């Protein structure tokens, strides 16, 4: 239970309230964007270390996606509240999160588990780049640098995100029968 990867996942979870305080309490979009990059970047680190150090655990397998969902959800909802994200982008991404959360809950209660797909991981990576880039553009921090990646990885990531969600729905339906 007390492993390096789990400690990183707990730290990721602990940073989420700080993110909210920075974003809504202080209106510091640049720092909020940095926190999204940091928490998103450590998503890869905890999984890598778990495999590399042979410290994979059931707790870690649960914490990692919870931290991902909470951070992405926070970044999306917070971004829509402060106007850092295009509303259509935020709503479509939050909608996908709701769909996948329902799939996860149904899968859990039916004794099944849905494995995170490589496609889903790619989409999450793209969105972890797009969302903070939108924040930086909104803060008028180098919009000529962050604007194109925000739109390109945001739109492509969203398409791939929904494609992965359809795959999860299909897998759940197949398993449940």
Please tell me about this protein's structure.
- The protein is mainly alpha-helical.
- It has a single domain (about 5-175), classed as Four Helix Bundle (Hemerythrin (Met), subunit A).
- Helices cover about 85% and strands about 0% of the residues.
- The protein is globular and about 50 Å long.
- The mean pLDDT is about 90.
Topology:
Blueprint: H1 4-25, H2 29-52, H3 58-82, H4 87-109, H5 118-138, H6 143-176
What is the level 1 CATH name?
Answer: Mainly Alpha
What's the CATH topology name? Four Helix Bundle (Hemerythrin (Met), subunit A)
Considering DSSP H and I runs of 4 or more, what fraction of the residues is helical?
Answer: over 70%
Radius of gyration: 16 Å
Query: What assembly state would you assign to the polypeptide chains in this entry?
Result: single chain
- Proper CATH architecture: Up-down Bundle
Shape: globular
Number of helices: 6
Secondary-structure element series:
HHHHHH
Beta-strand portion reads under 5%
Q: Which stretches are low in confidence, meaning pLDDT under 50 for 5 or more residues running?
A: none
Task: Name the structural class.
Answer: mainly alpha
- N- to C-terminal separation? 35 Å
Mean pLDDT: 90
Superfamily (CATH H level) name: CDP-alcohol phosphotransferase transmembrane (TM) domain
What is the domain tally?
Answer: 1
């Amino acid at each position: 239970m007390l492993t390096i990867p789990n400690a990183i996942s707990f730290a990721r979870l602990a940073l989420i309230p700080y993110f909210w305080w920075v974003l809504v309490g202080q209106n510091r979009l640049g720092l909020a964007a940095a926190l999204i990059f940091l928490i998103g970047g450590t998503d890869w680190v905890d999984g890598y270390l778990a495999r590399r150090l042979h410290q994979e655990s059931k707790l870690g397998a649960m914490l990692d996606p919870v931290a991902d969902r909470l951070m992405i959800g926070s970044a999306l909802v917070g971004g829509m509240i402060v106007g850092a994200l295009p509303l259509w982008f935020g709503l479509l991404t939050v909608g996908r999160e709701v769909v996948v959360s329902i799939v996860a809950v149904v899968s859990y209660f039916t004794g099944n588990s849905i494995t995170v797909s490589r496609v889903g991981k790619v989409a999450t990576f793209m969105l972890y780049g797009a969302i903070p880039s939108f924040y930086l553009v909104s803060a008028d921090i180098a919009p000529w640098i962050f604007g194109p990646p925000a739109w390109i990885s945001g739109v492509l990531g969203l398409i791939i995100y929904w494609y992965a969600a359809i795959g999860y729905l299909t897998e759940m339906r197949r398993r449940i029968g």
